[in-house]
Amino acid sequence: MTSQTPDIQAVLKRLDRLERQNRWLRRTGALAVVAVSALLLMGLTGPGGRAISAEEFDLVDGGGRVRGKLGFDDNGKAKSPALDLYDANGIAVATLYASMGRTGGLLLDDADSGASISLITTALVGPELRLSDTRGVRVALSLWRDTGDVSLELSDGNGNRSVLGAVASGGPVPRETGRTSAASLVMFGKDGKVLWHAP
């Protein structure tokens, strides 16, 4: 037993020295990571150090899957800025976009049910809220840009629809104004013909 005591003392002394070296290496390594990160971030900034520039940014979860994307969608005519958010299966569930002509929108989708909510602005109508399912737009609330008229359209998904408020075409439209008043109700059949209206 007495012969092992000096060996244990030597091992403890060596272990203490290794632990101090390990702590020093960890601190030095952490400092190096912070310094390199700071240098990389400074190198990514644009002129004047105020912005990071890129054509696309990906938001990636811990598993390496893209869960969000900030970039440009190609709509055929020009690229439009958009922010897309994806569920765990990579399906877009939310999109915020801006297009040419001062239009833009927010789209929220449920891939499982096919339901969606759209809040958009268009050059023709103006701001519009749409509730849709697999059979198309079921509810649309529109504020007509040029006249300030409001319309609420309800659809059964089979082609029948009712419009409360302004109807610009396809209904009993007064020639003087080109659309019905906000106090009107017009019901259309599947063929698009007026079934009933008041006034």
Produce the secondary structure layout.
Blueprint: H1 4-44, E1 57-60, E2 66-74, E3 79-86, E4 92-99, E5 103-110, E6 115-121, E7 127-133, E8 136-143, E9 150-155, E10 161-165, E11 185-188, E12 194-198
Antiparallel strand pairs: 1-2, 2-3, 3-4, 4-5, 5-6, 6-7, 7-8, 8-9, 9-10, 10-11, 11-12
Can you put this structure into words, describing what you see?
It is a single chain. The chain is an alpha+beta fold and 199 residues long. It folds into two domains: 4-48; 52-198, Alpha-Beta Complex (Outer Surface Protein A, domain 3). It has one helix at residues 4-44, and strands spanning 57-60, 66-74, 79-86, 92-99, 103-110, 115-121, 127-133, 136-143, 150-155, 161-165, 185-188, 194-198. The protein is elongated, with a radius of gyration of 32 Å. The chain starts with a helix and ends with a strand.
Distance between the termini: 110 Å
| Beta-strand share of residues | 35-45%
Q: Strand order within the widest sheet?
A: 1-2-3-4-5-6-7-8-9-10-11-12
Mean pLDDT: 78
Helix content: 10-25%
Please identify the top-level CATH class of the largest domain: Alpha Beta
- In CATH, the topology of the largest domain is named Outer Surface Protein A, domain 3
Q: Which shape, going by the Cα principal axes?
A: elongated
Helix-strand makeup class: alpha+beta
Tally of separate helices: 1
Stretches with pLDDT under 50, minimum 5 residues: none
